[in-house]
Each structure stands twice: as C-alpha cells, then as structure tokens.
Here is the input.
Amino acid sequence: MLNDFPAYLERIGLSGTPTFEELYLAHATKVPFENLDPIRGLPNSLDLSDLERKLVANRRGGYCFEHNLLFREALGHIGDFEIQPLLARVRAGNRPGPRPKTHMLLKVRDDDGALWHVDVGYGSDGLLAPMPFGPGEPHVQHGWTYRIIEDGPELVLQLLENGKFVDLYGFVDEPVYPVDLEVSNWFACTNPRSAWTTKLHCSFQEPGRRWQLSERSGPCLLSTKTPSDRNFEELTFEQVPDYLQEIFHLPRVERVQESWRLVG
Here is the structure.
C-alpha cells in the first residue's frame, strides 16, 4: 500500500475513492513515460518509497516497472485485489529475434473474481483501461482497438493500426517473483545495450491523442498520434526542453555532452 494515497490521487487529478477504471485512466493519462534517469547513468529503484518520491512528490514519470509497481500499491487502497506481476518481451519495432523480458505488466483478480490485463506503463501505445485477461474479442478504448491472441506459449497484446493488428508484446502467464523483477529492471536501466540507457524516449497520452519523443533514430522526432492519423516533427536539441515541459509535463532538462540532465 502507498505511504500517501491522497498525494497519489492529487498527482493524477482524483480524490476520494475512485473506481478501478477511473484510477487506471487517470494514472495512464497523467503520469508520463520517460527514461531520464537511465540515460544519465542513474538506475531506477523499485523501492516503494523511491517510487512515490519520484513519480508522486517530484511529479516525474518512469517506465513500466515503476508505473506498474506504483499502480499495484494504489489498487490496494480501493479494493481487495489479487495481483500477479508478469514479464513480457516487447515485439513492437520489427527488430529480429526474441528480445529480453524487460517489460512488466499485471494480472489482476478483482473482488468479483474477474481477471484483468493491467498495464499503465507501456507508454504511448498503452492501454487506457483494464482488459479482460487472455485471448478474446477486440476491445475499443477511446478510439484505440486492442486484442490479445495466442502465439505458441505466449499471449500477445496487439493494437489495430491502419486496418491491421500489430504486436506490442508477448508474455507467458507464469509466476514472477520480486527477484525476477529486480534482475529485469537492472538490465533495462543499466545495460549499455538496453533501449533505455542511451537515447531519450518519452511519451504522454490523453484519451484520443498520444505524443512520443525519441532520439533513437538519430534526430529527435516528435510523433503526434490519434486513432486515425499520425504526424512527425523533427526537433532540434534546443527545442526539446520546452517540449518536455509543455507536452510531457516533465521537469526542465538541458543537453550536456550528447546526453541530458535535469535542471535544478
């Protein structure tokens, strides 16, 4: 459970006792996805007090482990949920071969016994509401259409884009222990070959619009996406600090020797 649940609710624009769906949407649309610590050589801590300090008190964002572990603790304040972390291999991006299990999601059983696929930490293409766990019919969330299919031993979350379902990530429904999360998190935020340790990557979403800023492909590209359209804008390094503040609601940064650091 969180040390300061009212502060968390204030961070995501809620109060009182929200429903499961209200809490999910608020978190997914108020707390950005960002890797400002790993690209500065600072490992991401999974300790609850550190998560609350970073994502709540300091109004920062984070990546999947940070988001979903914080959200897991928040759920304990609104209901009697059984929650099992799971690890996944990201498939998006069309890179060859299987990738390491460096994405985290949650399998949640609610008070009525229903099972839900919960993931507030995927980033710009992530779910905006809990989905029924396991393979089933497509689900539309604020204009975005998702489904879960079986592919061999894995379950795969897919997103409908341009009339075709594309893979986001695949996972196996098997127990994951805290030590597994620590190992996967440590690789993701410290390994020099990890996607999160070398290039800036931030995303933020509202119910019908998503923004993603990435310098993985060379220049800084800002993607603005709706369920039916997507536009790209190339940014200079000088523009990035203003965009991070105005669009992604993050602290100001400055460019230092091919990386970034927080100002102040």
